[in-house]
Design brief:
Elements: E1 4-8, E2 13-17, E3 20-23, E4 28-31, E5 35-37, E6 43-49, H1 51-61, H2 70-90, E7 106-114, E8 117-123, E9 129-132, E10 139-142
Helix pairs in contact: 1-2
Length: 149
C-alpha cells in the first residue's frame, strides 16, 4: 500500500508518505524513500505506482529549470513527466499473468512554494493535472492508501 499526502498551509506545504515498498506477487516489503526533492527547487514530490517508471520520471525531473509563473511551472513539470507515462504504455509488452498483463502506471503528487505561495499539483496516470487550493480543499492524497487519508 502506498500513501502520499500533501496539505497546503499558509506559509508552505506539508507532504508526507509511508516508508515501505511492497511486491504483491511475492508479498515482500522493504523500506524506501518515497519523497524526492527536485534539484535545488523548492519542490518535493512523491509517487505511487511502478518503481521502474518512477525512477525514469525522477531522472527526467532532474532537468527541471526555472519558470516565471505557476502555470509555466506546471507545464514544464508535465513536459518532463508525461512522455515517460506515454512511453510506458506504448512500449508495454503484455504477459498473461497478473500484474504483468497491464502497462506500468504512476501518479505523482508535488508540493512547493512559488513567490511565497504554496501549491499542490497532482499528475494522474493519464497525464492530467489538478491544482489543489482553496477551491479544492488544500489537501490531496494519492496511492492505494488514499482512502485512509
Amino acid at each position: 500500500m502506498t500513501l502520499v499526502i500533501a496539505i497546503r498551509c499558509t506559509n508552505g506545504v506539508v507532504i508526507g508518505a509511508d516508508s515501505a515498498s511492497s511486491d504483491s506477487e511475492t508479498g515482500t516489503r522493504q523500506p524506501v524513500e518515497k519523497l524526492t526533492k527536485v534539484g535545488d527547487h523548492p519542490i518535493v514530490y512523491g509517487g505511487s505506482g511502478d518503481a521502474g517508471l518512477l525512477q525514469k520520471i525522477d531522472d527526467n525531473l532532474a532537468a527541471l529549470s526555472q519558470w516565471s509563473d505557476l502555470n509555466g511551472m506546471c507545464r514544464h513539470i508535465q513536459s518532463l513527466v508525461v512522455p515517460q507515462l506515454r512511453n510506458a504504455t506504448e512500449n508495454f509488452v503484455a504477459y498473461p499473468q497478473v500484474p504483468f498483463n497491464m502497462p506500468p502506471t504512476a501518479i505523482l503528487l508535488f508540493g512547493g512554494v512559488l513567490d511565497g505561495e504554496p501549491w499542490i499539483l497532482e499528475i494522474e496516470r493519464n497525464g492530467g493535472d489538478t491544482f489543489y487550493d482553496d477551491r479544492l480543499g488544500n489537501f490531496a492524497a494519492i496511492g492505494s492508501g488514499k482512502v485512509l487519508a
